[in-house]
Amino acid sequence: MIMKKLCLNVVLGALCCTPSLFSGEPTALVENAKANASRNVALNVDGADFPKATSNSVYHDMAIFAAKNVINGRNENKGHGGPFPSWGPHLIDDLWLKIDFGKEVEIDKMVIYIRADFTPYTKSDHDSWWKSGILEFSDGSKLPFKLKRTADAQVIPFPKRQVSWVKFTKLIRAEDIWCAFSEVEFWGKVVTESDHFLQFFEHFVYLRLVAFLILSVCAQIN
Predict the structure, then answer these.
(1) How confident is the model at residue 153 (pLDDT cuts 50, 70, 90)?
(2) Which listed CATH number (3.10.129.10, 3.30.1490.10, 1.10.10.10, 2.60.120.260) goes with 38-191?
């Protein structure tokens, strides 16, 4: 009898915390989920304050090589300068590139277009590429990554993280010539109050289930 009451308690508790569970109308949570479908949350085409890209090096402070170019939505990368905007830093070893989302986002994938001003896409090798680096997250975690010599998009998935910024560090050149990023994308969604509620709800249900299992074992022992 005790076990049945506890089980019923768990179910009723879960139902009470789920708004409009049996309503035929779309709930705010569902509508919000649709609005937050996975997208490139680093994109800034209009030059708004955020997202924002900054770095510690831009070649001669030229706009065509500015950090902001990596989030402007343009991934043309088979050349440099003019119609091929990129983040093009000096040849130094302590480079960093930071993308500040301006809000909390949940991301699980980055897509990188290196600048590919090299053969076979062009007549000569103006560029090399960063063969590896470290991606740092605002939550304190880090992700080592590797890149290939290609003009194609390079997709790097990782476990979901809720962060407000990311930072590229420890970039290692494959050859001692120019390296650049043409475009960097981070895919996910903006974290909303509904997301925080769902996390709380999942935690709440988990704790109730754990309590139920403990009490069930105690009841059997008694």
Answers:
(1) very high
(2) 2.60.120.260
Quote the mean pLDDT of the chain. Answer: 84
In the numeric block, the tokens 């309590």 are attached to: 211
Going from N- to C-terminal start, the domains of the chain cover: 2-32+195-221, 38-191
Q: How far apart are CA 77 and CA 86, in angstroms?
A: 8
In degrees, to the nearest 5, what angle opens at C-alpha 176 toward C-alphas 173 and 182?
A: 55
Structure tokens of 176?
């001692």
- Render 57-73 in DSSP notation, one character per residue: --GGG-GGG-GGGGGSS
For 30-71, the pLDDT digits (tens) are 555 555 689 999 999 988 899 999 999 999 999 999 999 999
- Each residue's pLDDT tens digit, 79-106: 999 999 999 999 999 999 999 999 999 9
Return the amino acid letter for 74.
Answer: R
Residue 205, SS3 per DSSP: helix
82 contacts: CB under 8 Å, gap ≥ 6:
64
